[in-house]
Amino acid sequence: MSSSAEFRMDQLPADPLLHVLSFLGFRDLVHCSLVSRRLNELCRHNPLWKRLSCKHWLLTDADRLQSGVSWFCLFKQYYRDLGRYVQYYPVLKSAWEQLKSFLQLRCPRMIASLKEGATEVELNDIEAQIGCRLPDDYRCSYRIHNGQKLVIPGLMGSMSLSNHYRSEVLLDVETAAGGFQQKKGMRRCLPLTFCFHTGLSQYMALQPAEGRRMFESFYPCPDQTAQDPSAIDMFITGSCFVEWFTGYVHNVVTGEYPIIRDQIFRYVHDKSCVATTGDITVSVSTSFLPELSSVHPPHFFFTYRIRIEMSSSALPEAACQLDSRYWRITTSDGNVEEVQGPGVVGEFPVMTPGKVHEYASCTTFSTPSEYMEGHYTFHRLGNFHNV
């Protein structure tokens, strides 16, 4: 009686079993395939591996048709090649595809600078050359694209002032290995980016040394108050490669970073930094410049971009001209500085319905965070005394 009532899951009809199997990850699905001949057959069911191939390798029906093999075989092919990166691949591949789609529309010449992905052998050779292990998220990204050619503009963003220009190239792994640091103060650090104009690079720490955490990215900053020239401070930009890269891509593709003259400018716009008075709206974007800043002594250089816009629905008689500006700067230790003067960067823009005026300026702070607020004064063109 008890033996005739014994229940075996693999004796269920195919449809409910396939439904159960559809909830499994690829590792569990492989384990189930080893239980019995019937489960082995069911675990090769094409729709199961289509879902997993789409999830982990972002493959499409077109990819499967082009390969000429089943979804199960296609998944195995990708896993043999990229299996060690399965944790990172869908995130990084998606980021690269989003970035390329955006660049194709907004900065098409950057697309041509991207290099084909590196091979496993090439990445292994680089590890042997520098004597350090590369993190898997970095390796995964470089399997997709091996950085970019050494051209301007750089993929990792630009910044421009009247007498200063920065544009960071995403280094290919061979060039990065050539800049691998062994000197005191920068031991075991691999450059991620490089700017031809400033010599600036962002680095990734491949080992926890000299106060750095493993795999965090940073801009190095010499301690100008120390007797030892190897004393290095850091402006940290990410805790790991995948965070550093995907965070940047998110800011690009969502429009957080503006595109100016076919380049990605790393201005950050705080949506709370917008004010409207009558028909005039003013918004602000800011950017920190590590290459012009230092921790010791405390000197923090910021540039800001102001956008002044008159509503297109304003009446013609609302036209006005900017007369002066006023800024009130409060440091994190409570000190207040006031700045006022005529115009903006030597200009007195005339605002008419629908017109936009943008300008960039800069300031330095002695504390890491400060608060800057202020106002502009305009007069109506039809009545100078109507301010």
From TrEMBL:
<dbReference type="InterPro" id="IPR036047">
    <property type="entry name" value="F-box-like_dom_sf"/>
</dbReference>
<comment type="pathway">
    <text>Protein modification; protein ubiquitination.</text>
</comment>
<dbReference type="InterPro" id="IPR037883">
    <property type="entry name" value="Knr4/Smi1-like_sf"/>
</dbReference>
<dbReference type="InterPro" id="IPR001810">
    <property type="entry name" value="F-box_dom"/>
</dbReference>
<feature type="domain" description="ApaG">
    <location>
        <begin position="274"/>
        <end position="387"/>
    </location>
</feature>
<dbReference type="Pfam" id="PF12937">
    <property type="entry name" value="F-box-like"/>
</dbReference>
<protein>
    <submittedName>
        <fullName>F-box only protein 3</fullName>
    </submittedName>
</protein>
<keyword id="KW-0833">Ubl conjugation pathway</keyword>
<dbReference type="InterPro" id="IPR036767">
    <property type="entry name" value="ApaG_sf"/>
</dbReference>
<dbReference type="Pfam" id="PF04379">
    <property type="entry name" value="DUF525"/>
</dbReference>
<dbReference type="GO" id="GO:0005737">
    <property type="term" value="C:cytoplasm"/>
</dbReference>
<dbReference type="InterPro" id="IPR007474">
    <property type="entry name" value="ApaG_domain"/>
</dbReference>
<dbReference type="InterPro" id="IPR018958">
    <property type="entry name" value="Knr4/Smi1-like_dom"/>
</dbReference>
<dbReference type="Pfam" id="PF09346">
    <property type="entry name" value="SMI1_KNR4"/>
</dbReference>
<feature type="domain" description="F-box">
    <location>
        <begin position="6"/>
        <end position="52"/>
    </location>
</feature>
<dbReference type="InterPro" id="IPR052121">
    <property type="entry name" value="F-box_SCF_Substrate_Recog"/>
</dbReference>
